[in-house]
Amino acid sequence: MTESNNPLPISEKIGVLLVNLGTPDAPNAKALRRYLGQFLSDQRVIELPAVFWQIILRGIILPFRAPRSARAYQKIWTNEGSPLAAITKKQAQGLQKRMPNITVDYAMRYGTPSIPSRLEKLIASGCRRILLAPLYPQYSAASTATVQDEAYRYLQKIRWQPNLRSLEPYYTHPAYIQTLKKNIEDQIKALDFKPDSLLLSYHGMPVKTRELGDPYYFQCQATSQALSSLLDIPVITSFQSRFGSQKWFTPATDMTLKELPSKNIRNLAVAMPGFSADCLETLEEIALQGKSTFLEAGGENFAALRCINDSEESLAMLEILVNQGLSGWLKSGE
Ligand SMILES: C=CC1=C(C)c2cc3[nH]c(cc4nc(cc5[nH]c(cc1n2)c(C)c5CCC(=O)O)C(CCC(=O)O)=C4C)c(C)c3C=C
Ligand SMILES: [Fe+2]
Ligand SMILES: [Fe+2]
Description:
The protein is an alpha/beta fold. It contains eleven helices and eight strands. The chain has two domains: about 180 residues, Rossmann fold, CATH 3.40.50; about 130 residues, Rossmann fold. About 45% of the residues lie in helices and about 15% in strands. It has a four-stranded parallel beta sheet, with helices on both faces. It is globular. It starts with 13 loop residues before the first strand and ends in a 9-residue tail after the last helix. The site of one fe (ii) ion has 2 residues, from loops. One of its GO terms (biological process) is heme biosynthetic process. It catalyses: Fe-coproporphyrin III + 2 H(+) = coproporphyrin III + Fe(2+); heme b + 2 H(+) = protoporphyrin IX + Fe(2+). Keywords: Cytoplasm, Heme biosynthesis, Iron, Lyase, Metal-binding, Porphyrin biosynthesis.
């Protein structure tokens, strides 16, 4: 940099990057191999010795899982693409409308648009302060930490780093709990049956991660507790989407759905508070597979409730969380 191209005074622009997990670009085996290959090579997700795991992943897991997962994605794919990507994009657009003084964008931890590409874009547009907002209410190393790792890996490569902050996990934040409450109550009211119970199903994790100090399990329980104290319906918590042969958190959602009818719970609503947007795990695993499991086990009525997605309440919640995350950065009145 010479004196003639001195970039100061710099712009005061602030960027917010919403980040979710990621999704394949298409519902076919080739795109699934690429996406799952990247996702399941992340050592924050699969904590096994890398060389050993790559042999299993490339030789056994991907050849079988990619075509099977592709068929599952085909059942939920929309005209706008993968639901997770389409909803995350709308969340960013909706938040941008509510917060015209900052620049809002979104990225995916795996697949596209990548975190480095969107950080680069924000920086190029003059953002010297960036708030990273992983859309995971409950912190886990496999979700939140890996987003932060990826952002800092990119920053390691650049000379003039922006100031980077990260949104705190918001598992009992009043704005989040109230948004969930309204989302759940509105949908339950609109059902043509009265549920006996509400199942709160969170994405599972290996038990070992809890033993090693990951707070995710406890934060999920705290969300359930905060929510159940405000809802007028009995609440049950379970963990879904088991992967691999390790022990995962219990009770498992699929086992719970099998057992509930024999415990006289035959009319069930299921909400998935850990997912900010509907995705394969909510629309296929629960709304389709979970429903069959429950009805085949003797259940009578089943409803998988929509996630908070890009509803007005969800955008208002994001605005509150982001404003808190930006505290001290925004000039008063902005
Ligand atoms: C909500 C937070 C999530 C945590 C924690 C999480 C941990 C975790 N996931 C896997 C394996 C898979 N997850 C898959 C899909 C998936 N996972 C999350 C969120 C969390 N995962 C979301 C939002 C999605 C849906 C993505 C979409 O495109 O809609 C998949 C891929 C799908 C499949 O083939 O079944 C896998 C695999 C592990 C191993 C793990 C923690 C160790
Ligand atoms: Fe997952
Ligand atoms: Fe799954």
